[in-house]
Design a protein that fits this description.
The chain is an alpha+beta fold. It contains 18 helices and 24 strands. Strands 12, 13, 14, 15, 16, 17, 18, 19 and 20 form a 9-stranded antiparallel sheet that branches. A 5-stranded antiparallel sheet has the order 5-6-10-8-9. A hairpin with a 2-residue loop joins strand 18 (369-377) and strand 19 (380-389). Helix 13 (351-364) runs antiparallel to helix 15 (402-413) and helix 14 packs across helix 18 (472-488). Bound molecules: flavin-adenine dinucleotide (FAD).
Length: 508
């Protein structure tokens, strides 16, 4: 029996029957994430894992990592793969640990207001479970219907409700982690609560993108369900008005629960798909929650503010619809075969400048882009542009990827930064941190994971399938070349299938 067969048998033995697979189909399914990558990317990365395992318990995860160590196999932790930077995709094959299978809600500690979950629990399910007990999680990614708790925490976790309740970092109380050695640790003392004492390691693993270990249990802060919950929607003539309104909201005396915006192109895309959608230059969605009297006061206050900023309040029906749609931002991806989403944090007072520069880039690269986002605190906007793509036209799809890099450069220019490094954007770390800090981060990775076992060759460096490292200069050169290539193509069109043919559209 050859070595790899013996290794596979060991992995199969580490999990319960039916929770191991080396079938081509399962490996194919786990060889990509949200971002549709053209097949040609396989020349650079071995994106197909050799095996996929679906553990149920932390001890099984520890055993899988120990086996990977003994056979020198790379390990890739994977949640719902709804992140688009390749973090959950292997770059050198090996074993993919599909943590969606660890989906148990372990219990609620009412006294401390903490829920304990396994990493594969999906946000929406957790919220529904808590609602039935009089609680809610007010912070989550807008991909909540599919994204896992472990995945969001590992990517740093900003999202719906961060404006009032903070990010993952503010709400994770403790983690159990399987280290690359196969040892298990707890990152904080159970009694640390909101005021962690000595050596709380939680922050080290929140946002580490699975590069320092595999999160196997999570303690999260939860809150009593609010008495009143009211979404509102304001329509504006254009994005200049939208961003001016956001600046005013961020400086306001009161604080909504959630503040989100969507540009007019998003609704144009929906109309091109044949859906009903409002005509607008852009909308701001303000959501309020809390005691009823307080919510009423906040609505009155912000209604006056939004009207003064040129906003028109839409009907409650539209507002409810917008709130329900918060998790389906990429509906229009059906116009292509997929959508690629970029994400940056931008100072709120610079968001308008970022938009103007981004629109210049969109024109240069002849693309169709929509932008949406939300405030995550009083000074920061999460800015999420997305474009439609068709990876079957692989040269064009590949060249379009440079848009994300170029957009992140624009954000950096105005004091912003990208959210997420993963595999494809790993070199962006050089735009986010100074050299000394990067050296320290690399040392931390080397100390905890000397063999680069778990998500090696990602996050702090970009490594290809044969262990070839790609530095920031080569990466920049490659991206610039791709951007130039994209400009040689005719302007992007979005098409929707109709009986007997296609109709196409363009937007300015
Ligand atoms: C429509 C849409 C809306 C989105 N909205 C938001 C948003 O509001 N805010 C936001 O932050 N992101 C958002 N995202 C991006 C993405 O959905 C989130 O980051 C999501 O939380 C990732 O969870 P996941 O389970 O899909 O993780 P995956 O994509 O599977 O994994 C993400 C990373 O975490 C690692 N990982 C996964 N599980 C573990 C674990 N248990 N232990 C260690 N490492 C692990 C993986 O290796 C990978 O590097 C959105 C995406 C889409 C498609």
């Amino acid at each position: 029996m050859i070595e790899s067969d013996i290794a596979k048998r060991s992995f199969a033995a580490a999990v319960k029957p039916g929770r191991f697979s080396d079938s081509p189909l399962e490996r194919l399914v786990t060889s990509h994430d949200l971002a549709p990558m053209p097949k040609v990317a396989c020349l650079a990365f071995k994106m197909m894992p050799d095996v996929v395992v679906r553990p149920k318990e932390p001890e099984e995860v520890a055993e899988i990592v120990r086996i990977a160590n003994s056979w020198d196999w790379p390990v890739t932790p994977r949640g719902a793969a709804s992140w688009g930077f390749g973090g959950a995709v292997p770059n050198k094959g090996g074993v993919t640990v599909d943590l969606a299978s660890m989906d148990r809600i372990i219990g609620l500690d009412v006294e401390r207001g903490i829920v304990r979950v396994q990493p594969g629990v999906v946000w929406l399910r957790l919220d529904e479970w808590l609602n039935r007990r009089g609680y809610f999680v007010p912070y989550y990614p807008s991909s909540a219907p599919g994204a896992t708790v472990g995945g969001w925490i590992s990517t740093g976790g900003v999202g719906v409700g961060s404006y009032k309740y903070g990010t993952a970092r503010d709400n994770v109380r403790s983690l159990q982690v399987v280290l690359p050695s196969g040892q298990m640790i707890n990152t904080a003392h159970l009694l640390d609560g909101r005021h962690p004492s000595q050596f709380d390691l939680t922050c080290l693993f929140v946002g580490a993108e699975g590069s320092l270990g595999i999160v196997t249990t999570i303690d999260l802060q939860v809150y009593p369900k609010p008495e009143s919950f009211v979404p509102t929607t304001y329509s504006f003539p254009d994005m200049d008005h939208v961003f001016n309104a956001l600046v005013q909201i961020s400086q306001a005396r009161l604080k909504p629960y959630h503040v989100a915006f969507v540009d007019g192109n998003y609704f144009r895309f929906l109309r091109a798909m044949g859906r009903e959608a409002i005509e607008t230059g852009g909308v701001v969605n303000l959501v309020f929650e809390g005691p009823k009297a307080k919510v009423d006061e906040e609505i009155r206050y912000f209604d006056a503010l939004m009207t003064a900023m040129g906003g028109v309040r839409m009907s409650d029906e539209v507002a409810q619809h917008e709130w329900k749609e918060r998790s389906y931002e990429l509906r229009s991806k059906k116009l292509g075969t997929g959508a690629v989403i970029g994400e940056a944090l931008v100072p709120v007072d610079k968001a308008l400048l970022v938009t103007h520069d981004m629109l210049k880039l969109v024109r240069k690269m002849k693309m169709n882009v929509s932008v949406m986002g939300y405030l995550i605190d009083r000074s920061t906007v999460a800015f999420l542009p997305f474009y439609l793509t068709d990876e079957r036209r692989w040269i064009k799809a590949l060249s379009s990827l440079s848009f994300v890099k170029k957009f992140l450069d624009i954000s950096n220019k105005y004091g912003g930064r990208g959210v997420g490094l993963g595999l494809f954007m790993a070199n962006n770390i050089y735009k986010m941190r100074d050299r000394n800090t990067i050296e320290l981060l690399k040392k931390i990775k080397e100390t905890i994971d000397p063999e680069g076992r778990i998500n090696g060759g990602k996050t702090t460096m970009l490594q290809l399938r044969y262990g070839i490292k790609v530095g920031p200069r080569l990466f920049r050169f490659g991206m610039n070349a791709l951007a130039l290539l994209k400009r040689l193509y005719p302007r992007d069109r979005y098409d929707r299938p109709v009986p007997g043919g296609f109709t196409g559209g363009e937007h300015e």
